[in-house]
Predict the 3D structure of the following.
Amino acid sequence: MDGLYHPALTAYLEGLVERPHPLLAAMEQRAAETNFPIVGPVVGQLFYWLTRLTGARRVFELGSGYGYSTAWFALAVRDNGGGVVHHTVWDADLSRQAQEYLAQMGLSDLMTYHVGEAVETLQRVGGEYDLIFCDIDKAGYPASLPVVKRHLRVGGLALYDNMLWSGRVWDTQDTSEATEAIRTLTQQMTHDPDLQTVLFPMRDGVLAGIKVRPSGTIP
Ligand SMILES: C[S@@+](CC[C@H](N)C(=O)[O-])C[C@H]1O[C@@H](n2cnc3c(N)ncnc32)[C@H](O)[C@@H]1O
């Protein structure tokens, strides 16, 4: 992310964020110390706000880490009146750490945890969701979209992180698998008649698509 934004802009935006729970700051501190790739407070607050805006109560997260982005979704679902938030990661230790953080926040009642490959888990668990957030390894993004769409209600929101990929998406010299996968997903989502998609240029870029009816309307 370094270099995409003026450091003063990043500091200004992060300074505006009101965290709905103090543990979020400790989770950010941990990410900074261990270089773990969390979405950070500006995108976390965007996720909280989008979840509140859409009234989402059923959220599925693919590629969840130790639960930082999950916590923003779960706090919003709690404030929407309650529901369910699925945390999915293939590392059992990260899953356990997320369970501890979310328990400390008093959010365990909302949570369902899965250890395994995230897209396969969504297919296996099934169900229909108001919001699905994908933050898995980037090479897996294009293949995840049909599964995400299948399990999203009409009017629901599909979110993908790292869609600017630190500027590598517009670097014509970069043809790595991850960069090409992000470019492919961007084309898929922006040209899909089932989705109305916008790219939020916050932190590393969030692509957000609303699932619409064949007529283009949203309930
Ligand atoms: C970028 S981190 C998630 C950060 C998290 N969204 C946050 O902001 O707090 C992605 C995590 O998902 C895991 N992961 C990546 N691809 C995955 C997949 N296909 N299935 C399950 N877990 C995956 C990674 O090992 C890592 O722990």
Observations:
- The pocket of S-adenosylmethionine is lined by residues 37-39, 63-65, 68-69, 88-91, 94, 117-118, 135-137, 140 (CB under 6 Å).
- The chain has a mean pLDDT of 97.
